[in-house]
């Protein structure tokens, strides 16, 4: 009996690695500490009522952002472990198998569980405020999306202490990810973790498109929408076309592994190339899903801190929409070397190069917006200014990679690694950081400390170039990606050492950011204006943090930078008193426990399928069904905020007595 338990435990838990043992112990300690703190301060009820069951888009957004910062930490630790291993030739710090797991989890976590939730967090907190809405179109679905993301990410993350991590790369190509070559449970965790959170992302895409199309304040025509809202819209268009492909691809891979189907095997009539095409039909649009909102953020920040309207509004909108369409026609550039033939390669080389045109137009628009502007070098603006050269270089190396014959040389080398990190860090990560710094006061009602923020900015930026510039040369010298070590004779040692130093500079930059947040929470420089940057769009017209109902009175929009125009008009009219607003009762959605419970059940469905434990998966699936029925028969799901309560809240927020 004891033997059996021991045997099970050694298969169930990952054992034998001191790094992982340390992580297991610290996770256990952290969990006990959290439970203790919540119990000691009697916060369980508060947590449940205010957060876990909330359908308020602002709170959901904040939860997304907290998760993504934790995931940035995990993905960053993975990155630094790899950089340590690669710092010197013939290092024995990580075993090759462990290295495979780490680059796989790093890639998946950074893109799907760091960039995506940071993006969804900003979408949630800001977009409804920018269009003058009270919430998103489907608040319940929004909560469900978040919890599906959360439990999917959890399922993926537990694999490193339970069962073993996936190790077939971030896109899990078969045959490597098939049952024959990956018999463990790691690949199952990959499939179910991504599948569950992916459904949440698809729902968000639908939800936000409907919100933008149906919930704009009166007067806000499409061409008067703020640029960030446009970027949310284009990104969601890509989501609703791309994510179903991912869902189907992972489902087929699951059938191959679970039922021995032959979709992606060479025998039995399948073909692994099919998978590679499908996964990139999602994968390439995916990188545009995350970059477009960064473009939107930069557009807002450039206009605000140059004190000018964005240059070329229309061309910006068209550029964004063209990119969302083109992004679906470039996927083959990820495998020029895999035998599609010259004609096919030429087509995809040209479509890839074509994307540089609208992107270049946007860069000129930002530059012209800054031209002769009164630029203020705040932290959000610094990230924006640093992004431009970084993204331009990263984009140009992308054009080099798109030259199909040349790609036979660059393919799978460190040249590629440097390229995509340059656009993912210099574009996506810097963009979301800029957005986080910019909208932080709107979310929490106080500013982040600028001094520490500048330290973080310089560390990240210098660290970035020190880390990734040497990798272009390593790639040209023949160093391929996904190798866990290299021989002294290759002569790659010194450049790799430099690269590792750069990686750690970024790590220190991250520590500064955490310090900055902690410091700013402690010192709490309250922003009473609601508009600390002298902003241009509607989110700045209401107090920070925004009340539950966002706008006490729905605004009427006339201009592109409507709030800016309103401020100019008010200034011109002198200190004339604003007429007292007339409030009406506000219709709001009620909180619900179903999104949390249902997504938690999905976690068990996934966990059951990962281990082939039908006794767990099937009851959990039935539970999911019951949740759906329960929701269908919930009639009491809304309430009204009465006028006297609005009056009291507004008076308190604006610091006057009612
Ligand atoms: C913070 C600094 C970062 C460092 C030092 C870093 C470092 C690395 C390293 C060493 C690899 C493995 C290279 C190999 O052996 O093939 C890698 C792969 C990768 N990284 Fe990063 N990374 C960073 C940030 C990011 C970010 C922000 C993203 C995405 C938003 C990202 C996405 C990826 C992806 C997709 C892979 C490929 C994984 C695979 O081969 O399956 N990384 N990174
Ligand atoms: Cu691509």
From TrEMBL:
Pathway assigned in UniProt: Energy metabolism; oxidative phosphorylation
UniProt key word Nucleus: no
Tree of life domain: Bacteria
PROSITE patterns: COX1
Keywords of this entry: Cell membrane, Copper, Electron transport, Heme, Hydrogen ion transport, Ion transport, Iron, Membrane, Metal-binding, Respiratory chain, Transmembrane, Transmembrane helix, Transport
Membrane-spanning residues: 20-41, 62-82, 102-126, 138-162, 189-210, 230-255, 275-298, 310-332, 344-368, 380-404, 416-440, 452-474, 494-515, 600-622
Pfam families: COX1
GO molecular function, one term: cytochrome-c oxidase activity
Cofactor or coenzyme needed: Cu cation; ferriheme a
UniProt xrefs under InterPro entries: Cyt_c_oxase-like_su1_dom (IPR023616), Cyt_c_oxase-like_su1_sf (IPR036927), Cyt_C_Oxase_1 (IPR000883)
Swiss-Prot/TrEMBL catalytic activity: 2 a quinol + O2 = 2 a quinone + 2 H2O
GO cellular component, one term: plasma membrane
Domain Cytochrome oxidase subunit I profile: 40-558
Membrane topology recorded in Swiss-Prot or TrEMBL: Multi-pass membrane protein
Alphabetical GO biological process terms: aerobic respiration; electron transport coupled proton transport; respiratory electron transport chain
Location(s) in or outside the cell: Cell membrane
Family membership: Belongs to the heme-copper respiratory oxidase family.
Designated name of the protein: Quinol oxidase polypeptide I
Organism, as annotated: Paenibacillus mucilaginosus 3016
């Amino acid at each position: 009996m004891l033997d059996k338990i021991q045997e099970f435990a050694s298969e169930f838990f990952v054992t034998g690695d001191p790094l992982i043992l340390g992580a297991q112990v610290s996770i256990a300690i952290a969990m006990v500490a959290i439970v203790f703190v919540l119990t000691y301060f009697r916060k369980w009820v508060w947590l449940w009522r205010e957060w876990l069951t909330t359908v308020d888009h602002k709170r959901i957004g904040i939860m997304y952002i907290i998760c993504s910062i934790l995931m940035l930490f995990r993905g960053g630790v993975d990155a630094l472990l790899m950089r340590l291993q690669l710092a010197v030739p013939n290092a024995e710090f990580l075993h090759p198998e462990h290295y495979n797991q780490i680059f796989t989890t790093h890639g998946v976590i950074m893109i799907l569980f760091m960039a995506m939730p940071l993006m969804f967090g900003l979408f949630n907190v800001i977009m409804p405020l920018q269009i003058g809405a009270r919430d998103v179109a489907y608040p319940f679905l929004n909560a469900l999306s978040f919890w599906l993301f959360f439990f999917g990410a959890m399922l993926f993350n537990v694999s490193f202490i339970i069962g073993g991590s996936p190790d077939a790369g971030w896109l899990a190509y078969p045959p490597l990810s098939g049952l024959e070559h990956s018999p463990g449970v790691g690949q199952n965790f990959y499939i179910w973790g991504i599948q569950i959170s992916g459904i949440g992302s698809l729902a968000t895409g639908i939800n936000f498109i409907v919100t933008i199309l149906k919930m704009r304040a009166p007067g806000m025509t499409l061409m008067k929408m703020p640029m960030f809202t446009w970027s949310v819209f284009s990104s969601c268009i890509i989501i609703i076309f791309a994510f179903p492909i991912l869902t189907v691809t992972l489902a087929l891979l699951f059938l191959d592994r679970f039922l021995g189907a032959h979709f992606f095997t060479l025998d039995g009539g399948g073909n692994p190339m099919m998978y590679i095409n499908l996964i990139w039909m999602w994968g390439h649009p995916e990188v545009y899903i995350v970059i477009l909102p960064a473009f939107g953020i930069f557009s807002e920040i450039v206009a605000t801190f140059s004190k000018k309207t964005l240059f070329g509004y229309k061309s910006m909108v068209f550029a964004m929409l063209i990119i969302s369409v083109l992004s679906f026609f470039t996927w083959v550039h990820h495998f020029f070397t895999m035998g599609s033939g010259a004609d096919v390669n030429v087509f995809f080389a040209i479509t890839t190069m074509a994307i540089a045109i609208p992107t270049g137009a946007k860069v000129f628009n930002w530059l012209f917006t800054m031209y002769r502007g009164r630029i203020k070098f705040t932290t959000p603006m610094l990230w924006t200014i640093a992004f431009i050269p970084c993204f331009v270089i990263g984009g140009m190396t992308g054009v080099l990679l798109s030259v199909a014959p040349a790609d036979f040389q660059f393919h799978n080398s460190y040249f590629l690694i440097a390229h995509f990190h340059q656009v993912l860090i210099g574009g996506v990560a810097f963009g979301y950081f800029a957005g986080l710094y910019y909208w932080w006061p709107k979310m929490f009602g106080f500013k982040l400390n600028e001094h520490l923020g500048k330290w973080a900015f310089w560390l990240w930026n210098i660290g970035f170039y020190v880390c990734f510039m040497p990798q272009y040369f390593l790639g040209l010298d023949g160093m391929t990606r996904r190798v866990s070590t290299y021989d002294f004779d290759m002569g790659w040692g010194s450049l790799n050492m430099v690269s590792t130093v750069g990686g750690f500079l970024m790590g220190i930059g991250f520590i500064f950011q955490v310090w900055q947040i902690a410091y700013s929470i402690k010192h709490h420089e309250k922003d009473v204006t609601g508009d600390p940057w002298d902003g241009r769009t509607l989110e700045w017209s209401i107090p920070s943090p925004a009340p539950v109902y966002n706008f006490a009175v729905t605004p009427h929009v006339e201009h592109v930078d409507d709030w800016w125009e309103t401020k100019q008009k008010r200034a011109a009219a002198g200190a004339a008193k604003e007429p007292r607003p007339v409030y009406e009762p506000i219709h709001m959605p009620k909180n619900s426990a179903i999104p949390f419970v249902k997504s938690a059940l999905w976690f068990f469905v996934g966990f059951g399928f990962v281990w082939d434990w039908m006794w767990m998966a099937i009851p959990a699936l039935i539970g999911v069904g019951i949740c759906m029925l329960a929701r269908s028969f919930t009639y009491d799901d809304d309430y009204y905020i009465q006028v006297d309560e609005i009056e009291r809240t507004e008076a308190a927020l604006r610091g006057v007595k009612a």
